[in-house]
Amino acid sequence: MPHRLHQLLDSLAHITSYRDVQRLELSLLKTLHEILNPLSLQLYKVDEAYRLLIALSYQPAQSDVVELQPEQAQSQPASDLVRRALQQGQPCFVQAADASYLCAFPVVDMHDIHFCLLIGSQEPLVATEEHLISSFFRIYHNFCRLLEDAQTDELTGLLNRKTFDENFLRISQELIDPNILADADDRRRVLAAKVDHHWMAVLDIDHFKQVNDTYGHIFGDEVLILISRLMQQNFRRTDYLYRFGGEEFVIVAHCGGLAEAKKLFTRLHRAIESYPFPQVGQVTASIGVVQLTNRHLASSLLDQADQALYYAKSHGRNQLHFYQELLDQGLMKEKRPKTGSVDLF
């Protein structure tokens, strides 16, 4: 037990150094696997009606998590056990057909999402193990709450500008050279990921000042909140949605290629255009999109998305443009970085 407690304290120190929720989840599962050495370890996320949103399974060989297929995640008795643990608010276990045990632990509730950990073991967990895990989760829950308060925009609930800047610094490092990352798990994750399957969009609400001037800031704030909800409805929970400031938003999303990216961002663009905003009526947005690539610094990619957005704004608004397509069509020229001098002031 003292050895496990020492492990747990070291792991907590490591986990609380992260500022990215997805990396937190990976570190949580890795830590518990090292302490418990279970047969299986899975993290379930369900909505308020206990409908499955996503289930992640920890793979110790790759030190990574994989998403379970719905038929795997919703198999009996796992789904029933998860529901029972969440409803009762305490650990529940059941003996499986192969004489192994499944134990479900409620982890944390974040808004309308419930998290539950499912542990498979050869023997039922003893009381000291259950207490250790429960205490660990309470600390983890409190840290998630603090992290959420620091990282989210108070009005919309999206990630805030400060978090975007922090994440973008990491993206810059990863795009240049993943090997510079100190954490071995991070290096494996980045090297295995297809960076060019990620796209970044800058979205700006058209004529937003007129909305505030005509209807007042209360209705202006409602427009911001409703557009944030439309973004959340049209993107996966694993995508990154930021309120960049004022009426500007940034999206970093994973797409299989250009066709999928067009479909995804066009869907959002049309959803905003067709939404009946209370009192205000129709609201439109201009969007500029760029593909993430290791050929450019992250700051350059943000500038390219901004250029595509500016093109949309200056050519009638309520448009969606991809930076590379504008270059290919000769509608925009690529900016070359200045060399030979540095302006300090």
Automatic annotation (TrEMBL):
<keyword id="KW-0808">Transferase</keyword>
<dbReference type="InterPro" id="IPR043128">
    <property type="entry name" value="Rev_trsase/Diguanyl_cyclase"/>
</dbReference>
<dbReference type="Pfam" id="PF00990">
    <property type="entry name" value="GGDEF"/>
</dbReference>
<feature type="domain" description="GGDEF">
    <location>
        <begin position="196"/>
        <end position="325"/>
    </location>
</feature>
<keyword id="KW-0548">Nucleotidyltransferase</keyword>
<dbReference type="InterPro" id="IPR000160">
    <property type="entry name" value="GGDEF_dom"/>
</dbReference>
<dbReference type="InterPro" id="IPR050469">
    <property type="entry name" value="Diguanylate_Cyclase"/>
</dbReference>
<dbReference type="InterPro" id="IPR029787">
    <property type="entry name" value="Nucleotide_cyclase"/>
</dbReference>
<protein>
    <recommendedName>
        <fullName>diguanylate cyclase</fullName>
        <ecNumber>2.7.7.65</ecNumber>
    </recommendedName>
</protein>
<dbReference type="GO" id="GO:0052621">
    <property type="term" value="F:diguanylate cyclase activity"/>
</dbReference>
